[in-house]
């Protein structure tokens, strides 16, 4: 088992948020908008560098897939499916430290 992995990962459609319960018992909630805003795939990073907003009117999450024991892949309602989110990166997004990691 990956020590960084949460005990529970659920996407709550009603609140449109990813809810994680970590090994230490702490909880994180990350909105679909935040997941899209901090997508670190090469396409999103390139768009951000030239000032193109990556968030569409459909930043809702349509599916979440496990990526082995290291993280998740998020698929958005607008079809974007390149976002891979390792556990430490999700912790950083939840703690408002994501920009430190992608800059």
Chain-wise SSE layout:
Blueprint: E1 8-12, E2 17-21, E3 27-31, H1 32-37, H2 42-49, E4 61-67, E5 71-76, E6 83-86, H3 87-94, H4 98-102
Antiparallel strand pairs: 1-2, 2-3, 4-5, 5-6
What would you note in describing this structure?
This protein has helices at 32-37, 42-49, 87-94, 98-102; strands spanning 8-12, 17-21, 27-31, 61-67, 71-76, 83-86. The chain has 103 residues and is of the alpha+beta class. Strands 1-2-3 form a three-stranded antiparallel β-sheet. A three-stranded antiparallel β-sheet has the order 4-5-6. It starts with 7 loop residues before the first strand and ends with a helix.
Short recap of the structure:
The chain has 103 residues and is an alpha+beta fold. It contains 4 helices and 6 strands.
Gap from first CA to last CA: 29 Å
Strand content: 25-35%
Tell me the quaternary state: single chain
What does the main sheet amount to? 3 strands, antiparallel
The low-pLDDT segments are none
Mean pLDDT: 87
Structural class: alpha+beta
Q: Report helical residue fraction.
A: 25-40%
The strand count comes to 6
Gyration radius, rounded: 13 Å
- How many helices does DSSP assign? 4
Overall form: globular
Task: Please tag this protein with its features.
103 residues, alpha+beta, three-stranded antiparallel beta sheet, 4 helices, 26% helix
């Amino acid at each position: 088992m990956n020590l960084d992995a949460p005990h529970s990962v659920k996407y709550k459609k009603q609140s449109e948020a990813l809810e994680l319960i970590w090994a230490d018992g702490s909880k994180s909630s990350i909105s679909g908008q935040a997941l899209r805003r901090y997508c670190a795939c090469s396409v999103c990073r390139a768009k951000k560098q030239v000032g193109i907003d990556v968030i569409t009117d459909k930043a809702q999450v349509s599916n979440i897939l496990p990526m082995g024991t290291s993280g998740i892949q998020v698929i958005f309602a607008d079809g974007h499916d390149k976002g891979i989110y390792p556990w430490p990166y999700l912790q950083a997004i939840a703690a408002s430290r994501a920009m430190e990691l992608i800059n």
